[in-house]
Write a structure and sequence with these properties.
alpha/beta, Udp-n-acetylmuramoylalanyl-d-glutamate--2,6- Diaminopimelate Ligase, Chain: A, domain 1, UDP N-Acetylglucosamine Acyltransferase, domain 1, 2 domains, 10-stranded parallel beta sheet
Amino acid sequence: MEITAQQLAQMVQGTVDGDANVTINNYAKIEEATTGCLTFLANPKYTHFIYSTQASAVLVRNDFVAEHPVSATLIRVADPYKTLADLLNFVNAQMAPQRRGLEQPCYVSEGVELPEETYVGAFAYIGKDVKVGHNVKIYPQVYLGDGVMLGDNVTLYPGVKVYHGCKIGNRCTVHAGSVIGSDGFGFAPKEDGTYEKISQIGIVILEDDVEIGANTTIDRATMGATVIKRGVKLDNLIQVAHNCEIGENTVMAAQVGVAGSTKIGRNNMVGGQVGFAGHIIVGDNNAFGAQSGVPSGVGDNQRLMGAPAINSRDWARQVVYLKSLEKMSDDIRELKKQIKTLQNEQ
C-alpha cells in the first residue's frame, strides 16, 4: 500500500512539516531506511540519524526542533513510538491470514463446543470439558488439557501446552513452545537422602490482555493458583515458579527467573536475566536492571541494579570503584615499599 505523508498524517492526527505529497510504501529503522520508507525518532540517542536518514518521512514529537537541515518530511505527533506501534498493528492485521475452521488431523474431545469462527490447526489436541471463547486461534500442535478455559480473542501459537484446569483470559497471546501449568518444583527430602514429590494440585490463571513469549514456562500452584495479572507482558525463556503472582502491567525481558511464592506488584519493569528469590514481596513501579539479583523484598518506586540488587546510583559508583581496584592495589604495594624503606632507614 502506498500513501502520501499528508494522508498518513490525517490517519494519525499529526501535522506535516515538509513535502506533504511524498509517498510512503514501507517501514524501516531510522539508520537503515531508504526512499519510500517511514521511520520514527523516539529515543534521543538516535537524533543524529535524522540528519542523514534516507527515509521519505519520519515520525517525530510535536516539539522536536531540528538543529540542522532535514531532507525527510517530518510528521509531528504526540508520541512517535506509540503511533508507529499503532500503524504496525494495523498493517499486521491487514496482512495476517484470517484462519478459521478445523484442520485435519486434530483431536477435539466429545462435547467440547467450538464457536463457528474458531481456528484449530493440524495435530492440536483439545481435552475434555475445555471451554473456548469467540475468535480463538489454536495453532498446530497445541495441547489443551482437560478443563482448560480460554476467553475471547485468544491466540495460542504452535506447540503451546496448557495443562489441565488452567484459565486464560480475553485477548491473551501465548507464543510458540510455552508451557502453562507444568508442575511446580516441589519435593520433600526423606531420611534416606531421596525426595518425595509433592503433588501440585493448583492451576495457572492468565488474566486479560496478557502476552507470553516463546518457550516461557509458568508453573501451576501447589495449592490455589499462580496468577499472571491483567496486562502483563513476559518475554521469551522466562520461568515463573509455583504460587507466584505478577501484578498488572508488569513487563519482563528474556531469561528472568521468579522463584516460588514470590509476589511482584504492578507496573514493574524487569530487565533480562533478573532473578527473584522465593517467598518475597516486591512493590509497584520499580525498575530492575539486567542481571540483577533480588534476594529480599522491595518497596515501591525504586531503581535497582546489581547482585544483590541495590539503588542504581550506588551500583554505578561501585562499578567505578571496581574499575579502580587494580590501580589502588598497585598504589598500596608501592606505599608498602616506601614505608618499608623508611623503616629500614631509621
